[in-house]
Design goal:
12 helices
Length: 266
């Protein structure tokens, strides 16, 4: 069992020299860090949304890599590896890492269509950064396009066509715990999204059953937090392409119940 948090990124890259190098490159690149900073200016300061900056990028990357490991440990093959656009598990994980880190940079232009905008902002970044990781020519193009697909399909209604894309999309919806989704509330945004979000205390991910290997447990003070799951998490799961591998439970101080797929006990 792991708690969705920023610490997960280090757990999931420390055994891979490629992933460590990529993460260092992302963290130290001036253009990348500035795009994430401006994304937060647009989303948090101007629109009073929750965090879309560097902390969110790190959290999503860590949990996405965790979900990919769970799936691979249950004999789910990364799609890019199956189709030959990546040549190793490390490269498939690189797609997940970079797509997670870049998935919200489109907010630096505008919240509307930010997934589409971010896809094309990422193209130039990837053309510049991937060669620094040792890739060239056709390999850069193949990896770039897989990463761009995973960014583009984080949009709610867009279907993910790879497992790698799916784990990025679901992970984007899992960054909802206390201290993260409270930002709009602190700024005075007292709509249902904000009031629902402040009830969520932590999100845990663990190995589930053979049929549903990803078990997500969302801990909340009260059932008002269900709104956050209905409006944010479940729509992303349904178009992730990996929904059949996932179960979501909600846990309150008095009970735990299955939330997705819908349970008769709910």
């Amino acid at each position: 069992m792991v708690i969705v948090s920023v610490q997960l990124i280090h757990k999931n890259i420390d055994t891979s020299s490629l992933l460590k190098s990529a993460f260092k490159l992302l963290e130290e690149d001036v253009e990348v860090s500035e795009l994430l900073r401006i994304s937060n200016t647009m989303a948090v300061t101007r629109l009073r949304y929750n965090d879309h900056g560097i902390m969110h990028a790190r959290i999503v990357a860590g949990i996405a890599l965790e979900l990919l490991d769970i799936l691979m440990n249950n004999n789910v093959i990364p799609t890019t590896l199956r189709d030959g656009t990546t040549k190793s598990i490390e490269e498939a994980k690189l797609v997940v890492l970079m797509a997670s880190y870049f998935h919200d940079i489109g907010n630096a232009v505008h919240r509307v269509n930010h997934e589409y905008i971010g896809t094309f902002l990422a193209k130039d970044l990837l053309n510049r950064l991937l060669p620094k990781l040792g890739f060239a020519d056709r390999r850069v193009i193949a990896l770039r396009q897989e990463i761009m697909h995973a960014i583009y399909a984080t949009e709610y209604n867009t279907k993910c066509l790879t497992v790698e894309c799916g784990v990025v999309k679901v992970s984007d919806g899992l960054d909802m715990a206390e201290g993260r989704a409270r930002i709009p509330y602190r700024l005075g945004k007292l709509d249902m999204h904000a009031l629902s979000a402040i009830t969520i205390k932590k999100v845990e991910v663990e190995q589930g059953t053979k049929e549903k290997p990803i078990k997500i447990v969302v801990h909340m003070d009260e059932y008002a937090g269900v709104f956050q799951l209905e409006e944010v998490l479940v729509p992303k799961i349904k178009t992730s392409g990996i929904g059949d591998y996932i179960e979501v439970y909600i846990s309150t101080p008095t009970r735990q119940a299955k939330f997705y797929p819908i349970s008769a006990t709910m």
